[in-house]
Design goal:
- This protein is elongated.
- It folds into 2 domains: 35-132, Hemagglutinin Ectodomain, Chain B (Alpha-Beta Complex); 134-192, Head domain of nucleotide exchange factor GrpE (Nucleotide Exchange Factor Grpe, Chain A, domain 2, Roll), CATH 2.30.22.
- The N and C termini lie far apart (119 Å).
- The strands form 2 sheets. Strands 1-4-5 form a 3-stranded antiparallel sheet. A 3-stranded mixed sheet has the order 2-6-3, with no helix packed on it.
- It is α+β, with helices and mostly antiparallel strands.
- Helix 2 (38-105) packs antiparallel against helix 3.
- The longest helix is centred in the middle third of the chain and has 68 residues, at 38-105.
- It has 3 helices and 6 strands; from the N terminus they run H-H-H-E-E-E-E-E-E.
Length: 192
């Protein structure tokens, strides 16, 4: 009997093309055993895979768009925070400006009234600074700190303060929260 006349495949021979063998070496799938069209099965599997790929692509595009929207909203929030922070500080300074203008309009020669008005205006300004987290650096008697103070001169010690301590403030410094805006200009006691 020749190979063409044999009734079926024998061990070591290739099966006929209409009977697929699973890759795992298991039994023939039911659809293939029932004689279903393998091209139709592959086409259905391909269509399902393409539908899943399209769905994943759509999800990817939506995720990218959402990420871009979050980034844009974040930038807008930061921009608005900067804008409104300065707006709040400006609103606190407007009454100070009003008080100074009123002081300039006063034509009376009463020095005490002018002094009282300036003191009230200074209190308004300090309140505005406090709301803006602006703090004064007035380090008389403190140890010299090069991060917050700038030494202009040094004087010999008189025994009241130890060396490298601030004996006088020539110009107050300012801080915003914990950041130095302007260091205090100081005179320090000379070291030994």
């Amino acid at each position: 009997m020749t190979a063409a006349e044999s009734p079926g495949p024998t061990t070591g021979e290739n099966p006929p093309p209409h009977e697929p063998i699973p890759a795992d070496g298991g039994s023939v799938p039911p659809a293939a055993a029932s004689g279903a069209d393998p091209v139709a099965e592959l086409r259905a599997a391909l269509d399902a895979a393409l539908a899943k790929a399209a769905e994943n692509h759509e999800l990817h595009l939506r995720a990218r768009a959402e990420t871009e929207n979050v980034r844009r909203r974040g930038q807008d929030d930061v921009s608005k925070a900067h804008k409104f922070a300065i707006e709040n500080f400006a609103e606190a300074l407007v009454p100070v400006s009003d008080s100074l203008e009123k002081a300039l309009e006063d034509r009376s020669a009463n020095a005490q009234a002018l002094r009282d008005g300036v003191e009230i205006t200074l209190r308004q300004l300090r309140a505005a600074f406090e709301r803006g987290r602006l703090k004064e650096i007035n380090p008389v008697g403190e140890k010299f700190d090069p991060h917050r103070h700038q030494a202009i001169s040094a004087v010999p010690g008189d025994g009241k303060l130890p060396p490298n301590h601030v004996v006088a403030v020539l110009q107050k410094g300012w801080m915003i929260s914990d950041r130095v805006l302007r260091p205090a200009l100081v005179t320090v006691v000379q070291g030994s």
